[in-house]
Amino acid sequence: MKQLNWLITGGCGFIGTSLIQDIISSNPNANIRILDNLSVGTVEDLSEVCSFNQIRHTQITESPCGCELIEGDIRDSQITEDVCKGIDVIVHLAANTGVAPSVENPRQDCENNVIGILNMLEGARQHSVNKFIFASSGAPLGEQEPPIHEEKVPRPVSPYGASKLAGEAYCSAYYRTFGVKTVALRFGNVYGPRSKHKSSVVAKFIKEALAGETLEIYGDGGQTRDFIYIKDLISAIMLSVQNDVGGEVFQIATYKETTVNELTKQLIKNLKEYYPNLNVRVIYGENRLGDVRRNYSDITKAKTILGFEPQYDLNKGLKATIEWFKETSGLR
Q: If you classify domain 5-190+229-253+300-311 with CATH, what class do you get?
């Protein structure tokens, strides 16, 4: 790809730092502007993947030079417009994530996920940004007979699913009305290195197991998900930037259905390869409000149009993830 000016919202988080690391590995002189409110990811997390200048909102220039971090909130319409100056590609990762927080506080979920993407799309429109990649989810589809795919009618179960569906709708509207080339990527359950702040099942269980804590599975463990390794997810983002597509939605996952029980069994097996004396206890708790029973994705559209092809199966991905936690936790 030609030299692009990037804007990555939520760039200090798990996916953001992984994407920045990938961009810089291909182009050490990449120009990347990062907008993050530092509510989850940290300055230290970002410093592990790049050298950057932390600048104030008032110091934003006509285009980024190298990597620069602006601490700010996507609900602030002035900041979101200003950070879009001189940008070619926006990857919008900043969001209220997960079903449980949206059930606890639906209004906050809406403000972050709906007002936030509206502000970012407005910034893209005002500054003629060519491509806008939106991190969506399978949650907009709700309780469906899997595999889920782009032609199914969305029926969100959780407030999180509703807010992500609103984001997809705004992406469609801004493409068809204003010509912003939006691409909504419905991520599967993402896991991998750099996920130390995540509370989703793989990172949560690894951290708990290494700390000697009990692993709690919600419900009976028969619920299914489609687990995608971070490097495959980053590949999908890059393909979305490279391909001349707009106004599209893609399922980004592995097309494999895995129960939480199966995941837990495989994870414990892999952990014991690294820690033979590890004693892991598993208990079962109550079902969580807003969770769907079965969920995995048909990725035919992403394969056909984007050329997306996952390279990591669950065993390979879990081993790579455990290795990273082992190296960074200090436990040998």
A: alpha beta
Percent of the chain with pLDDT over 70: 98
Give residue-wise pLDDT tens across range 27-57.
999 999 999 999 999 999 999 999 999 999 8
C-alpha–C-alpha distance, residues 104 and 26, integer Å = 41
HEC readout, 95-121: CCCCHHHHHHCHHHHHHHHHHHHHHHH
Q: Could you say which of 160, 170, 229, 312 is catalytic?
A: 160
Which 8-state DSSP code applies to residue 59? Answer: G
> Are the C-beta atoms of residues 222 and 261 closer than 8 Å to each other?
yes
The CA dihedral of 168, 62, 245, 241, to the nearest 10 degrees, is -100
What is the pTM for the complete model shown?
0.95
What pLDDT sits at residue 290? 82
Domains of the chain: which residue ranges?
A: 5-190+229-253+300-311
Cα angle 184, 188, 192 (rounded to 5 degrees) comes to: 115
Residue 174 parent element (H or E):
helix 159-178
Is 160 catalytic? The answer is: yes
Contact 15, 50 (CB under 8 A): no
Find residue 266's DSSP bridge partners.
Answer: none
